[in-house]
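Hey, can you fold this one?
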Amino acid sequence: MDIYEPAGDTAVRRPLLIMAHEGAFVQGTKSDQPMTEICTRFARLGYVTASIDYRLLSLIQLLLPGDTINFAKGALLATQDMRAAVRFFRKDAATNRQYRIHSGYIFAGGSSAGAFVALQTGYLDKLSEVPSFYDAAALGGLEGSNNLGYSSAVRGVVNLCGALGRREWLEAGSVPLVSLHGTNDNRVPYNSGKPGFGLPPQQLYGSGIIKVRADAVGVPNTLYTFKGANHVPYNGVSEPSVAYMDTTFRVVRDFLRPLLRQPGTIITATKAAKPSLAVQVYPTPAIDAVRLLAPGNVAFQPREIELLDATSRIVRRFRWSQPEFVLPRGSLKAGLYVLRGEGIVPQRIVFE
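Sure. Predicted structure:
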């Protein structure tokens, strides 16, 4: 996999989005343009992102007349690889913490074939649900073999132009999902049908049907329809493709943000509360710096402090280490900011 991280952040627990590329299970790589674009954009928001490679079929395997079995097996093997990636990060979160992942906020996503993989990672969660012709046990079951002992469960699913092989895999209690799909998709049906371009004639249930099923069983979901658009319209660098990618990014961002349980996109660690402080912040408005002064009637304890801008985005983190502390303005723009931290009442700061 290629792993993307926010530059210069100090978050101790970060959300994770793992993406799988398109390519009909016979081609494509982790460095395909839609993957690099999505992963880069979300890393800029504070996510760790990863674009994975997964095992591919040979073209001969896939295009044998009427051969739906290899197609289905290829999707299962790729799903094992996605689950192995989830477990890799969850193991790191429990041991080395190299990537500072919050293991409760891991999301699976993908485009086209990669969306099949993400959907199966989220919803094909019982061996009894796998059709017998898969011979799943011989392939290693649902999980495969890497990093066993750690959960491969995800918090939600990002489905870009994908489909499910069985509607019933999505059931009450399943994790939330967001889908984006073109109504004129000629490869993966928007509703139900068989894939195009000579792919094996397996019955598939696209994003339109997935939404109906999710609504019926009470699974939170969002469907954004690209009206009149063909398959993966966000793939490319043309002006229309970039516009479709902009929309894709915004819809997925707005779906994920509430699942993080806070207005911004960065998850921070929960620490034990310290005694409340009636902090004095002066001067305000300020030009170059503000001073934080702790009251003298409470024993001072160092604590982590955050500064948020008017959109609730965290713009600075620092450790308040002395009862009187100078916070330089640095490169912050003029405007209103909010100072918050453990055990203190949020304080307004204005820089002119």
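The chain has a mean pLDDT of 86. Let me know if you want another pass with a different chain boundary.
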